[in-house]
Predict the structure.
Amino acid sequence: MGALLRDPDERSRHDGEDRFRSMVEHGPAVSYIDGPDEHASTVYISPQVEGLLGYTPGEWYHEPSLWPRLLHPEDRSRAIAENKRHIATGEPFRMDYRMFHKDGHVVWIHDEATMALDERGLPRLSYGVMMDISERKAGEESAVYRAYHDELTGLPSRAMFEELLELSIARAKRHDRSVAVLCVDIDDFSLVNDSLGHRHSDGLLRQVADRLKDATRETDLVARRGGDQFLMLLSDLDREDMGETDAALVRAEASAQRVKAAMSAPFEAGETELYLSVSVGISLFSQDAEDGASLQRNAEAAMYESKRAEPGSYAISSRGTFDSGAKLQFVTRLRKAVDAQRWTLYYQPVVELDTGRMRGVEALIRWIEPDGTMIPPNDFIPLAEELGLIELIGDWVVRELVYQAQAWRGLGMRLEIGFNLSPRQFWQPDLAQRVIERIVAGGIDPAQIVVEITESSAMIDPDRAQEILWSLRRSGLRIAIDDFGTGYSSLSRLREMPVDVLKIDRSFVAGADGDPQAASIVGAFLDLARGLGMTTLAEGIETSGELGFLRERGCELGQGYLFAKPVPPEEIIAFALGRALMPGSVSTSAAATAG
Ligand code: C2E
Ligand code: MG
Ligand code: MG
């Protein structure tokens, strides 16, 4: 642009200006030429300026000091200083500042100008463009805002929590106070998420956030850590010793209890109401850890510990007595086990109660560590669900049991094989397809496979459960309701579901022969199942008294330590070959189980 001005020829200067004019008067930005003075008095300004700031070019020419007058007070001295430098040095002017529009609103402007020098190298005119960047500025603000706030719940984010935690630790060190970090995690939330869908789970997270805020004092910080995890920070706690325990711990526990109580009323998810609980882990500065990262890590480990021991409660991390490292290690170990597929399937015989013959087996997973330690499913399946690892484990189970069915078939054995689906697996969108593909690819008759799903997972969303069960059934698989009696089934629902086998939970079977109340419950379950055309199965038969009672009541099938514990597959061959499963019975018939 400097070249344009230095052009010595008057005519070509005009040509240049015309070209310049047509170029600048149609672009999105405001172009201008200012005099080299403190006010940046306007020599030329393109008409778009009226849209930007509400003043016509005429008004700009008329009032030489319009520019400084419209500058926002907070930016004025900075902008004027920058302009002075621009004039004095001839270097480009480049800055963002705010101006007032004629109607009073604030406009963010990006302004860039180059200085044209005359022949003697003195500043002659400044050529610049101004553009509206209000939106971008708003965006920048919200980017900062976003980093510190959780969009969904409006709570402070983990980043904000961590900064405030550091500050509060620093304060606690100076004033000999204590700080508590609580890690709060919704129990079985993945299940809610999978069964109700994202829209409802977002709503639930907001409700939980609101209740957490209500349950805490103004000075306590509640943040969302991500997913279904929240963090709470209790600062400036007293360190006063109260004998066995200390005041800070009492405060933290009281908070955990308030949080727990705040969850007790039902939550709304669309038309339905449902109950949620949270597990809480507590870590204290400086009793348990001295830095923010460790406090958070320990609180998380304590939360997992609490979830494993008793969901809906809280656990306190404390140096020495609570080895959070080991607990987190468990998570790491589980991830490794998933990678290395450190699983094996044990099989427990399913016995016909009147003949003692083995009808089939139930596959039960075990985790085998490299040192031979065997970890039972109840110790890791819930955690695997929580960590989103269950699908991988479930896929392994189906693959493995197909191999096993093939191997048994090779020996002339045709057993019904049941396997378990955890709640979250059940809600996988492509469950039926995933399972059936493997079974059919392995050349196994789907009618030989029984899918076990617990009563409580089927009843979370009976409508969808019904659909899923039908899709399994249409593939030819058989369906069992596991742990029956522990959930809250609606009988009309149960009638509409394609259920082949009703497995009565062990807790009702135990001692049913000697306990009239248990006996009448089991009797009612058996009548119900028969009425609905289902096969009855009693779980956990341990005594011959229980067996006698069940046979008398006409229960068809049973499982339990009385017959056999879950065993490796080789031992199933022995049972099939005739080892007696029924105490007192002569033998089971291999022929009867061979297919
Ligand atoms: P479940 O499906 O109800 O399995 C029955 C559980 O009761 C098994 O425990 C079995 O060993 C135990 N049991 C059988 N008979 C008796 C008895 O007479 N007395 C007593 N006290 N217990 C008996 P296990 O193998 O520890 O499995 C526990 C639960 O873990 C299972 O309950 C099932 O819900 C889950 N599970 C097992 N394998 C898998 C799997 O492959 N995938 C998934 N998702 N869950 C599994
Ligand atoms: Mg089962
Ligand atoms: Mg069961």
